[in-house]
Predict the 3D structure of the following.
Amino acid sequence: MTLDPVVLAERLIDCESVTPATGEVFACLEAMLVPLGFAVHRFVAGEPPEGPVENLFAVRKGPAGSRHFAFAGHLDVVPPGEGWSSGPFKAERRGELLYGRGAVDMKGSIASFVAAVADIPAEAGTLSLIITGDEEGPAKYGTVPLIAHMRDVGELPDLCLVGEPTSVHRLGDMAKIGRRGSVNIWLSVKGSQGHVAYPHLADNPIPRLIAMLAELDALVLDEGSDWFQASNLEITDLEVGNRATNVIPAEAKARLSIRFNDLHTGQGLVDRVTEIAERHGGTAQAVISGESFVTLPGAFSDLVSAAVEAETGLKPELSTTGGTSDARFLRAVCPVIEFGLCNATMHKTDEAVAMDDLVVLARIYRRIALAALAVSAS
């Protein structure tokens, strides 16, 4: 059965699905997969404020003992914002481009997943789609509960491809074989409120916070490693909330974000920041969003590269740049690589994808899946 990924992408874009996504968009995807022989399991996980989140696991089993290859992604999108030339949740073709929120990140890739698996015979092996409604948000009740479900039903894949938009200038020029880790840290320094004319009767926390941040900002965490760029620590927020001009505040706060490579662990960095914060009379509270990981070049990256080159003529650069993705969770299950559309318009007004790229991407995904089902990978 041959399916047009452009038409499939239009259907998905037309379903409003600002994170966390539920309902209509999942029903739309389910309606695409059931006629292809997939058993679809949808479930909702989590409670407010991070939930509820809808998730979908679809599997089409191959012959007994066959390999299992999975495509993974998300149906939720970021809010559209203002200033669109057309409705963000009404797909529109203009020239060679298809416009709509999620066209690139990543309903377009999911449409190409579906078009790819439609052309793969059942005897080739087991195929699955791991789809969450919460990748753009907290990601607490998305892919993690999906992994738990797959473990419960005994359907863990041998290899997984995440369809995030990894290409930069042309479809096929980059694939992601890893990601840096991420940790956010909230800092606080308490003092004692008082009148600015009587500083000896108060304790101003702001100078101590400034000294703390200066020391943290001066840190050189590393110079990079074999597969990763240097880790970086960024100050992302300062908060005092003092409306009065004649009052010394009782507390000063700040927030850090650290993206780190394989020379560190999240907890190791938290401990380091905490020590500095406490030395300046402050406290630190952290949330580790994910550890760094890399799927070292080998059979899996070779077959991905071969599929891309066969359809585009490009050999993709194997990279670990960019932010985090749900690959950080899936890597605990099996080797994982990310490959998808050009990322120039993701999260932007008038997000758009080249329609020809959707067609080519579906062919690439088909090649990758067939090769992954046929060979072992390291």
